[in-house]
Request: fold
Amino acid sequence: MSLQLMTWIVVGATFALYIGIAIKAMAKTTGDFYVAGKGIHPVLNGMATGADWMSAASFIGMAGLIAFKGYDASVYLMGWTGGYCLLAMLLAPYLRKHGKFTVPAFIGDRYYSSTARIVAVICLITASITYVIGQMKGIGVAFSRFLEVPFEYGLFAGMAIVFVYAVLGGMKGVTYTQIAQYVVLIFAYTVPAVFISLHLTGNPIPQLGLGGTVADGTVMPPFSVGVQSRKLCC
Reply:
């Protein structure tokens, strides 16, 4: 079996899994569509949120930034990481408690202001468009490379799958799909980190290997890995 045929099989199986999740978790009420019926376990919800953080925009974008700019580009991680933390601590709990389905509706009711609601809509659209552009670019690049098809075909294939499971399952389908993505992505993150740590320090646990001993017997300070990678990149 050729590598290209195996790639098509794996990608096709992934598409089938996502569509199957959407059908299984088909939204039947407004609550299912917008808030997954409020029945997702906190751990699973956290996995879905983590998968959203580790999406194409970050997974591919950070690799490209570090490849071109070196280790210093990792500071860009703080942007969306900080945003997620602020959203989780300052908005999400109150949105759930208030009983609204959308952020603009919550903001408008919370501050008794139509102007605040309009500002929230503008902010939401701006952030969503910026995020979706990065996501769609990542989808097009990944699918076009894996399937060896033009960028446009890869983009349309990805958009079609997202459209199917988002429309059929709503937030419920999206959440369970993100959980499956989390498992794949965390594995994809962890395996290279383990082997890099093993290669540089002889320790398979990256967190411990960061301060471990390199092959020549010298102790590697915590930040020397970053300096070394920056020199290699640049």
Notes: The longest helix spans residues 151-201. The chain has eleven helices and no strands.
